Amino acid sequence: MAAEQGTNVLRPFGTILFGLLAVGTFNASAAWREFRFVEPAAKIYRIDIPEVIGKTGPRSLAADAPLGPRNLRFLDRVVLQLKVDAKLKDVLSESPLKLSRTVAEGIHVLQARDAVVAAEEAERLAKVPGVVVSHPVRKFDRQADGKYAPFPDDPRFASQWNLEARDTNGIPSRVSLNVREAWPISRGEGVVVGVGDDGVELNHPDLYPAALGNPHRNFEQGTTNGNHLSNFESHGTTVAGLAVARGDNGVGMAGVAPQAGLAAWKMLQVSSEGAASVYQHEPDKVWVHNYSWTSSASGLGSVPLLERTARTNAFKIFRGGRGTVIVHAAGNERDFDQSSGRQQRGDANEDGYVNTPGVIPVAALKASGRVASYSNPGACVLVAAPGGETDGPLLFTTDRLGALGLNQISGCVGFTNCADYAFDGFGFTGTSAAAPQIAGLTALILSANTNLAVRDVQQILALSASQPDPNDWDIQTNAAGVAFSHNVGFGLPDAGQAVRLAQIWTNRPATIQLSYVNQPNGVPIPDPGHTVHITGIGNPTNITGLFHERAIHPDIGAGDGLVPATDTSSHPLVDVGQAIAPIGQSLTGKAALIERGGPGGHESNFSSKLTQAANVGAGFGIIFNNVAGGVESLISMNYVDPVSIPSIFISRADGLFLSNQLQTNFQLRVQLKLNDLRLPFIVTNQMLVERVAVKLNVNHSLRRNLRIALTSPGGTTSRLQHSLVCNSTTGRNCISESGPADWTYESVAHLYEPSSGTWTLQFVDDEPGATGTVTRAELFLTGIPITDSDADGLDDSWETQQFINLAATASGDNDGDGYPNSVENVLGSDPNDVNSPFPFEMDLSRWDANRSRLSWFSSANKQFTVEVSDNGSGPYTALTNVPSKFPVTETFITNTNTIPKFYRVRATLQ
Fold first, then answer.
1. Are residues 491 and 467 in contact, defined by beta-carbon separation less than 8 angstroms?
2. Is 664 or 68 the better-scoring residue by pLDDT?
């Protein structure tokens, strides 16, 4: 079929993109009968009963749930749960069912003659007093569900925006993990997630199926009781539900991995010896650990030796050498706690439990995709997941039963058992909520490919993620073409993409670690780190200044982005007074001199002054003190990050000097000059980098004054430590801690970058006064050795095999499929074939009772036209235009009972 001018029928290597995709409603045949089971909620199924049944009936029966075909089969066994005071022999006194096995106390599997008897007896037993659960054993034919799982029957799934967030037309309304795209491939079967917390409500109806038969433990008391022991404990229950709440059971909610197992470990009050036991508990049964807590240490918080050793064993030895996957909350200390006055750490790199190579540190997102206000940033943060925000939607999850826990509401209209769940104003939030979702996703990944090692899981998560907030000021695309932000790591994983990658993944080769030492033996870190450099007044002069207190709250603005990492340009200076009103002249190519103070609260409102200067084009602003009487002090300008230009604060004497000079000196120019220390590491070894670490011994009396960053040969910067300028008025960030001494900072930002070249370690002292020196710095590069003569991160043999020569780049995308060459190299896919790693494939899956989802693999930056016809040979008419999205483009189609339709997709030529 010839393509129309300006468009083409997308035919990857001969594959024509149209197929018979019929859309219609389900109509039950006369042979279908309704059955009512209890799961424990009552639920009606339609089951296909043969009209003629011989002496022995079928071993399984086709069935569907109320919302449409479910590709479900009921087998010839019955699941029966009894109340504590009920006796099995009494319940089965008139039943032909025989006990097959007892799963746990009060929970049994019964054998029937055939599937028909099982269905009939399950329905009858559901009405017997003392029976809590009675239904046939179910089997899902998941392949028949298509690429998008049916809407689960959990009545509160629609409230779980973190799993799927769409409006009534199917359009995404918030960020989510997109789990329904993963569930046809994996639901976490065969994987157990250990929740190390304050215990779990193991008899919760949405948790006990996952908990049955798994190794629970109270490490505080040395028992096998993983339940809460105090009425004030509930955290572990809220965590567990997000990871593994049982799905499709007609009750409450679904976890990310709705068929995974749960091991409840009560351990928050243990010693370091006890904690070491947690990491090594039942490693062959529990493959994934979730820890939704962080260190309570102030400043740099190291992990005790016993725990550190146990964690290393977990990463390297257990699960046949593939390692235990440990997921950890990144922490909620991003912003200062005004209510308690506690000085917050605010960086994941300063918590040894999180800042560890084998750990998956997880940040938290608002529903909008922006990093949550509390979520710790860090160069070690791998990915993020929804965590909610107090001024926005929180997360729906399991809670203590009844009046205990977060939600103490006794009853809700239209929501039975609502007290057993945390939601709405009583919902869950924090990186504590984000982490278990990634633990659940890890269970999906390992269920799809049980051979994966810890490193493989980490990289699959990174490659399945994307940056959820395009306005995140911190996003940088590294030399391998992979986007990273200290706020959210590699971003929010797409569960569907993650399990697809898991299916095709080949375990990465063994790594090596190389170290490089720069030992300056006491070289001083320049203080002050920032000055105003003045020219045009005879001899050039430097004025000491103080940069603003960088905002930690992500909604305020660009944070460290407004603290120049290099010298600014030199500009003429214009005195604009107190700048309390719009400035009536252009400052393009100039800098603004502004006096502090003014009427109406402008004494400390630095933001509005700088905004006035920015609005007329100023390159940067210099604010000088207005304090009279000879008092000279430098003020930490707080909350100026909404301003789009850098700024610095200087003393009144220096400000008046500049103001007076400007009266007669029209040659005066100013520059914000960076006075830093840079230590180079020259690397000649050729390696594909996976992670980087820097170990420092610095003798500085106030560690909080230092900003420390590492820049790779490819230009990617890892911010290892941000400075915290002390605000003497509020007490904010005035932590008296020296160092950093013998501390190692981890970074994942350089994933798949080349090793060879010069790595530069930068120290900037952001606050004048306290001083320090660097004794020793050691750079560790962990990765895979390659031959890389052009230092682009692509192995020469692979590059020449794929591209004939060495002209390709790691960040390039030769076939335009959305996967950079670096990733195609790792995946073993063809970088010149748009059908690799995933061949083009259209799918039509029912989304809800009214709409179906049409989807296909694609790259970004394309435009598709969806066409429809009643006949495969046409004619086709345009149905809708759809902008493409990587890795899957989708559109939604209204279901109909009319003639089946044929759909075709055209890609507009770019």
1. yes
2. 664
